[in-house]
Write a structure and sequence with these properties.
Blueprint lengths: L1 E6 L5 H8 L6 E3 L5 H12 L5 H21 L3 E5 L7 H12 L3 E5 L9 H6 L2 E3 L2 H13 L4
Helix pairs in contact: 1-6, 2-3
Length: 146
């Protein structure tokens, strides 16, 4: 099974899911989580830009190559919304995955449920912790409860 891990990059939630899934036949893919590499890949590869808009646009388009391929090639998409920052890109990833008919697992704290109600409505599961995601993946793959 292929799982794409999208969303918030400021905590270790991805590592917890990957570690908790040891022994399961899962391959994981994700966006580039190195902030400076992600923000600056466009100008580093294609050349400098005077305006920040074009700087960001170049990087967003190059990052989209990886993100689109990762989502399209995956069976399950996990999207994490963190508490500190608004992850507009994560909402876009969730919408793209939903449009492709991908199985979608959303993860966020309960206090932002209202803001994410439409995203949650598109998901097959809404979780709060990486451990819940791991339990879902184990159940889906093995039909067993922890």
């Amino acid at each position: 099974m292929k799982v794409y891990l999208s969303g918030e990059i400021h905590t270790d939630w991805r590592d917890k899911i990957i570690q908790g899934s040891q022994g399961l036949e899962i391959s994981f893919n994700m966006p580039v989580t190195n902030h400076s590499a992600s923000d600056d890949c466009g100008v580093n590869i294609l050349g400098a830009e005077e305006k920040k808009y074009w700087h960001d646009k170049k990087s967003a388009q190059i990052n989209s190559i990886r993100i689109r391929a990762g989502i399209e090639q995956s069976d399950i998409i996990v999207v994490r919304f963190g508490e500190k920052y608004k992850q507009w890109n994560a909402a876009f990833d969730a919408g793209y995955a939903a449009a492709l008919g991908k199985s979608l697992i959303i993860m966020h704290a309960p206090d932002i449920s209202h803001a994410l109600k439409e995203v949650d409505a598109a998901a097959l599961a809404v979780t709060e912790t990486p451990e819940q995601v791991v339990s879902i993946l184990k159940y889906v793959l093995k039909g067993e409860l922890s």
